Every structure is written in C-alpha cells, then in structure tokens.
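JOB MANIFEST
job_type = single_chain_structure
chain_count = 1
residues = 289
[input]
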Amino acid sequence: MSANAPVHAGDPEHDLPRSRAPVTSPLPPLGRADREDLQLARALLERPGVAAQLANAIGAPLEALLGRRLPARVSKLVDSATRRALEQALRAAVASLGGRRGARPASTRGHTFAAAATGAAGGAFGLAGLAVELPLTTTLILRSIADIARSEGESLDDPHAALACFEVLTMGGPAAGDDAAESGYFAARAVLAQQMASAAEYIALHGLSGQGGPVIVQLLSAIASRFSVTVSQKVAVQAVPVVGAATGAALNTLFMRHFQRMARGHFIVRRLVRRHGVDAVRRAYEACA
C-alpha cells in the first residue's frame, strides 16, 4: 500500500491512525449496552473448540477423536476439496445476499437446515461423497457467516467485510479450559492481519474475480490450512463406523452452529471497533474474563 493510500474506515484492523495527524474527534467510550454486547461476543468466541463439541456429540473422548489419523488419500481429498470450496464459495455467498446493511435479521435457522441436508447426503455416501458435500457445506457456512455480517452492519460490497467472512473459518475456538483471551480471538486475528490487508487492497482494485493474484492465493492457502484442520476433525467423526446419514446431518448442524456463533461474536467485535477503536475494545474484551 502506498504512503498516500487512504485507510479504509470500515475495517477494524485499520482503525488505529497510521500517521501522527491529530485526531479531531475522540472515539466515545463503551457504554453499558456495548459492554453487554462485548461480553456476549467473548462468551461466543471463547467457547470450547469445535473438536470438543464434535467429540461430545458422539460421546467419544476428545483425545480419541484427535488421535484418529485419516488415511493419506482422505487427508489429500480434504485439503483439495477445502481449497476448491474456498476459491468458489465466498463470491457465491456474498453475491446471493447483495451489499445491503442490516436489512433484516440473519436467517441462521434456514442455513442450518440446509447444512443438515447436505450432511445427511454426505453421510449416506460416506467418504465417497466428501468431494461433493464439502464445497456445498462450505458455501452454506460462508453464506450464513455473510448473512450474520450484514445483520451486524457490515457492507458486503466492502472487501474488508467480505474477507472477514473468510476469517471466521479459522476460528475453531480455544481448547477446553483455555480462558486466556490473548491466546484466542485477538491472537487468531493477528496471525492473518497483514495478509487480510493486502488481499483487501487487491480485491478493491480487481474485485473477487481476480482470485489468481498472489496475495489472494497466499491468503486462501493460509485459511485453507486452518479450516482443513477443522474439517478433518469432522471427517474423523464421520469415519466412525456407527456414523450414518442421520448422524451426518447432526454433525453438520453442530458444525454450522459453531461457525454461526463464531461469526456473531466476530462481527459484534468488528461493529464495536468501528465505533470505539480497537484498543478500547481489546481492553474491555480482556476485562470480560
């Protein structure tokens, strides 16, 4: 980004001034309602990770679930299907919603039902259906994330907001018993911050159709590597012999609801950062512990 390029006002990662220009209007402090919203966001974002939730869903110890090693061909299939899904899903998800802000509450229930249906179909065909089921499920998850983003005041025409939907897919949630805020939400965002900023600048110039740019490829690779870990955990559960179509639907429902919770918390934080600045929100978020 050039020295004269404007900082996008709608991106919470860039709310801090890049120069020493005087701030003419200080940001207001968090009021009671905003602090209550932030407490809700923290409760959502710092829940036990999706792996623990999946293990509880089938009554298996978490250690046994995480200790399951997928066959190499299945791991390769998960990685390739995840990357292909991410390359296609966000543009379709955002395009179907348009760039409206807060026009109506997010339709989380409808997206959950749809994900359950794809999970049932995928469970019926086992691992053979993964290549078809995973892109569909990923698109549905991203569409639900984008819907939640819009309901929290994000403009989906803004590349920063569109990429923030991708960011949710990296949020598996902390391990059970991990209550340190800095090891959770804000630390996870910091890992991708520079790549997100570069990708948003590229998309602002070339649009989402310009996915072949190196910064987009790098970001997709970084997100895919994290999301594929979560997907692999779900596939490991589905590979248990007793898992069939009905359980596949239940697991996809849990999977969808997990990312809906992550999205709600994420976009509440982004809304508050736009209003109060990242430093104030981070301090208040840590104080919620």
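[summary]
Residues 245-276 form the longest helix (32 residues).
The CA atoms of residues 51 and 233 lie 6 Å apart.
exit_status = 0
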